[in-house]
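In this section we walk through a basic example: taking a raw amino acid sequence and producing a predicted 3D structure, encoded as discrete structure tokens. The instruction is simple. Fold the sequence below.
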Amino acid sequence: MPFQIDYFILNFIIFITIFLSLDVLIFFMIKKKIKWINIIISSVIYLLILFVLFVFFIKKTTLHNFFNYLNVELTGSLNNFLQSEIAKGLSKEEVENLRLFFEFFIIKMIFAYIFLFVLVVVFLNYLVVRLFMINKYKIINEIPQFKMWYLDEKVIWILILALLFIILKKYLNNEVIFSITLNIIFVLANLYFLIGLSLVFFFMEKYKIPFFMQVLSVIIIISWNHLSFIIMLTGILDTWLNFRKIQKGGNLI
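The resulting token sequence is shown next.
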């Protein structure tokens, strides 16, 4: 019991230290008037480096591979879930489809989920520190309104290259490259969905859609997979079609 308490305290201290160091990093970058998107990118890289160091630390101190452990835990959860579904009377075909879905969208995409989690954490910390800098030091780090967000054209070529690797999978015959490519596509798909959503907000504001209808529209988009895909595709097409006719020379994002 004392060991568990000490372990919890140690993890809590590490957790707080990481977040404080992240906020300090963001604080100094805002003070240096670094562009907001560069602050986000630098902070994400910083947290990912810390995460890699943490993984190596775990492996060295416990002789356990973090990702193998995570894979075992996820697979165990999957097996328990499938057993419960079999007990409910699901057919073998339905169980197999569930297993394939889980393995593809959860286990294989675990790195993408980690990256997106880090990105969200960084962005939330950035917003908090930015607000502090505005109130305390009157330093404003300019960030465009959500309805004006877009991705630089260079990003689409990463997506195209990743899709090319997927198409050539049978010729490459490399599972590591395939998994990395899938994770890249999943991350970019979520980012382009975000850009598509910013387009929706732009046009809803342009045509003065009532707030209630805006909220309802977002709920429908998020809950309806086919519509979410259309929004993501719209975000991709905005790279070339520039639906809002905005000046992109400033590389907003």
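Looking at the output, two observations stand out. The chain has a mean pLDDT of 88. The radius of gyration is 22 Å. In the next section we compare this with other chains.
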